[in-house]
TrEMBL record:
Cofactor entry: Mg(2+)
Superkingdom assignment: Bacteria
The species this protein was found in: Flavobacterium noncentrifugens
Keyword Magnesium: yes
InterPro entries associated with the record: B-phosphoglucomutase_hydrolase, Beta-PGM, Beta-PGM-like, HAD-like_sf, HAD-SF_hydro_IA, HAD_sf, PGP-like_dom2
Binding site for substrate: 8-10, 24, 43-48, 51, 75, 113-117, 144
The enzyme's E.C. designation: 5.4.2.6
UniProt entry tagged with the keyword Magnesium: yes
Catalytic activity field: beta-D-glucose 1-phosphate = beta-D-glucose 6-phosphate
Family, as annotated: Belongs to the HAD-like hydrolase superfamily. CbbY/CbbZ/Gph/YieH family.
Name used for this protein in its record: Beta-phosphoglucomutase
GO terms (BP aspect): carbohydrate metabolic process
Amino acid sequence: NKKAFIFDLDGVIVDTAKYHYLAWQKIANELGIEFTPERNEELKGVSRVRSLDIILELGKITASQSDKDKWLAQKNEDYLSYLVDMDESEILPGVMHILKFLKEQNQPIALGSASKNARPILEKTKTISYFDAIIDGNDVTHAKPDPEVFVQAAKALGISNEDSIVFEDSVAGVQAANIAKMTSVGIGQASVLHEAQFIFPDFTHIDTSFIESLIKK
Ligand code: G16
Ligand code: MG
């Protein structure tokens, strides 16, 4: 029995959301826009381009494409500076235990992330070898909640959507999995991720018997 186990990156495997936040906050400050951690929730799982648009809408700012391109480049440069020293210590609790168990069970594993920086992050955290397929922001044209990223991931593993399981920390990502008729597992707060079929606060709350039940399903 093979299922596709598809992992989101930011907020599921590593807590890079804090770095995205710091980098966006810097841009917002320069533009005189108030940007809080609460507002940042809306940027989770959302593409870089869409994230900037959300911030500009917040500040009621209309900008030229060349200004937008400049801020997008600046944001990414700043974000990358936080990743320079990244290593395995930034993998979220419980994640390695589940990745190792899935490998032992010979289950196919994929990454389904909106980020264009996914590969260097997987390399730095030494998790890249666990993934049989990597689909990220460089491969897709439609951002979550469009299911494209997860559909491509399942296809790359040769598994049907119905036999795919998605681990996601964002509302947009959970919706994408549901639209694709995949099993959605929300990682985070139940109040935020209530659309998910299963919800856990983090991977330390996921045990191998739950994974076994998904494999048998
Ligand atoms: C992530 C984050 C988003 C970020 C997006 C694009 O995706 O959750 O906050 O805006 O990637 O990232 P980048 O600027 O690195 O291309 P995911 O899908 O891994 O949660
Ligand atoms: Mg995420």
